[in-house]
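Quick check before the chapter quiz. The format below is the same one you will see on the exam, so make sure you can read both the input and the output lines.
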Amino acid sequence: MGEELPVIFTTINNVLTATDTKFYVKTVNFIEQAVAFSENKEYYLNVVRATKDAIKEVLNFFGNDPHDSMIGIENTLLNIDEILNNPGIDQLKGAFKGRPGIVVATGPSLNKNVELLRDVTDKAVVVGADASMRVLAKKGMKPHMVCSLERMPPTAKLFEELSPEAFEDVYYAAAPVISPITYQTYKGKRIIVYRNFATFKWLDIEKGTLNIGPSSGNMAFKILEYIGCDPIILIGQDLAFGEDGNTHATGSTFGERESTYYENCLLVEGNYSPQVRSSRVWNMFLNYYHKDVLNSQAKVINATEGGAKIHGTEIMTFKEAIGKYVTESFDPLAAIKKTLTYPDGETLTAQRKQVLDKVDQGLMTCGKSIELFKGCHALCMEYIEKVWIPFSQGQPYNEAEGNRIVTELEQSVQIFRDPDFFNVLMHYVQSYAIKTMIEVHDITARDLPVHEIQVNVVSILKDMYEVMIQLIIKMEELLKVLKEKLEAELISG
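Here is the expected output.
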């Protein structure tokens, strides 16, 4: 028997994320060793599933739709004042080294132990998923931070109708890809937390960057890890249906049974049961927890008291975890307040000018990229007219001319590695670019005649160039809006 499945998932996920091997995922073949397979058939079938899950999660991380990515980029640029005016999580890096931290998620098991949280907020740093805000507020409790990363406006509903007191001394540690409406709805102080997106590298206004998974629970974990907490204790992180079929804790904004989670259900290993019922969405969050916990230097305690098993964690009740690890009093809130600083007017003006320079450079990059892709599109049309149409009419295939054009087209994709293109545009277009390169490598790996390979490659790239031109034009328009905003603010002082 080989490695545990979460380790396999994490290893493959890490390799695909960090290297160009992601471009070759359609060429992956599983080679069966008959004796080993027959002896451990279930294990190897699960290895195949783990590999496919790792591939799927990597592609999901890089995005499925450029228009969806554009929402995050547009939100980021619209949130520029939030970014400039507020401190970043980098100011708290390592500030709570060796102190316990608690992730509060809103799975149905939170009902079992949430009351114990009341007496430990002076003994641990408490970071809640955004959905926990209302649940805790109804019980008269608060986390030290609450985090969000969802780009769409409905996230704002999590904070609607809360009293002003509910926001006092609760820092909103959000990724500024969230909707401006969500920021407007949250009435408390902010901490800026970047995800590992090229857009934030391009802005070059350091706030602290974390490799965050897809849920606010994943985000809470990474925040606690980043600020040095050890151990990290999870509560309410079920990632599975409760015994009564509930999806969330009592008092959750969208109710205790959200219907969307009942779609595409599956069984996963449980903390206290051999198997528990989960969903595809929760399983995605679970896979990122496997990865984050296995990569973490901190001890991780799963005190969820139900739900799915997160490999690498130590399972115990929240009461046991408190008794063992949450024993020494300190003042997390005072430490956060003392550490965080805000930029002065001179710094804000300098940073606005810096961003304006970045915008000007971004507009130049957009213009150059559009011209390059227009030239490449013209080259595709040249192939069709000079090589493919004559061949389709019965003439010999002009392989030399086909080689010249395809080689030139393939060289054009090196722009994806250009630092300016990468920082300004790659996060926006990467889902389409990666999908295109996967299809190209899939075609070139097949045992096909040269003319079939070349015409398919040209066709795939031609479609990409057409889409890229339109996508980048939209980015140009967005950057022009930001440029006008920054220039007006600099003039007004």
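If your answer matched, good. The chain is about 55% helix and 10% strand.
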